[in-house]
Amino acid sequence: MSLYEKILSKEAVVGVIGMGYVGLPLAVEKARAGYKVIGFDIQQKRVDMINRGENYIGDVDNNELRELVQARRLRATTDFDELRNCDVISICVPTPLDKFKQPDLSYITNSANEIKRRLRKGQLVVLESTTYPGTTEEVVLPILQETGLKVGQDFYLAFSPERVDPGNPRYKTRNTPKVVGGVTPECTKHAVALYENVLEAGVFPVSSPRAAEMTKILENTFRLVNIALVQEMTKVAEKMRINIWEVIDAAATKPFGYMPFYPGPGIGGHCIPIDPFYLVYKAKEYDLHMMLVEVAGEISDGMPYYVVDRLTDILNERKQCLNGRNILLLGVTYKGNIDDLRESPALKVIEILEKKKANVFYYDPFVPEFTHNGKYYKRIELTEENLRMMDGAIVTSGHTIGIDYEFVAKHVPFVFDTKNVTKGKYENVILL
């Protein structure tokens, strides 16, 4: 039976490298569709949890994961030799930036080398990790071709960008359209067949991996630039004593030519703060400088400092200095109603506050404790006694559940709301 026939009949064994926010939901969907799935990860703790049917990703249904494991449709391992048993291999590993905002492709190259050692005829490899245009053909393909096998004939290689929005109640992996670009037409054909068998929202094939890679970069660069714009508008609106949230809501009534974006203490997650800079890096190879993207990044990077400056002004108006004040952060995740701290601007706010000698406390219904820069933090409870100890509170995540803002506002001198979750309903709330 050919690989294409195996994919169509769901006889193919599917491997997913990286059991994180992208990999585990994807593995679950593939197993749910009827494929036998093997998840690969270097973290033994994750592997053990999956094999016990225990979920650790918010967008995965606990019962569904457990049922798939019990039915032996899904299992996990740290043994990469099992890649030999896989007909399809998806790479879903992190693609971070280093401290100089240069791409770190080590997770991708490590995965490609693991596959190379076990690559055989009749396998499909799909890179899903967000990266700069050219990575699939310039980095992954040469590694795999060291085996002497020919792409498009002996094995197949494609890029299909992940589109995961943690905590989104409407769009999950299952009902989000998939973009696919193969190195050859046969590569595209095999990858399209796989995802058409798995997803409900359809597949959009493009002409090449580069086009698929650029698609993902465009999506997130669009968001970065527009968020930066509204962050700049926020600063101007504050000086002019205009409520930016009211302005955004008013502009959103326009049924064409406008899409609302919202300010906050910065940007977080694995996509918006990182992905556009992969393109900035690659563009320099062509002697191009993406100044708009770089400036947008600088604006967003500066928002935690702006938030602390605003807090300092609020305290000054009360004849208080920031040094020695007890400040409560409401939320430390990068967006509301999830437990994801990746690149969270709240963490930068904490760093800045502590450098200015403020005493920082936090409450987050989704994060009972965490470690950042080697320091351990544990949430306090929102009791009247604890709140009366505070000199002020900052809303730094957009949680709409798990926090009684009315109770908090009643017992602290002021609430500086950077996410508009209170809608300014309480007298002592100050909006960003």
TrEMBL record:
Keyword tags: NAD, Oxidoreductase
Record bears the keyword Oxidoreductase: yes
MF-aspect GO terms: NAD binding; oxidoreductase activity, acting on the CH-CH group of donors, NAD or NADP as acceptor; oxidoreductase activity, acting on the CH-OH group of donors, NAD or NADP as acceptor
Signal peptide (UniProt feature, chain positions): none
Highest taxon above the source species: Bacteria
Residue stretches making up the UDP-glucose/GDP-mannose dehydrogenase C-terminal domain: 328-424
Keyword Oxidoreductase: yes
Gene Ontology terms describing biological process: polysaccharide biosynthetic process
Family indicated by similarity: Belongs to the UDP-glucose/GDP-mannose dehydrogenase family.
Entry-linked NCBIfam families: NDP-sugDHase (TIGR03026)
The protein's name in its UniProt record: Nucleotide sugar dehydrogenase
Organism the protein comes from: Fervidobacterium islandicum
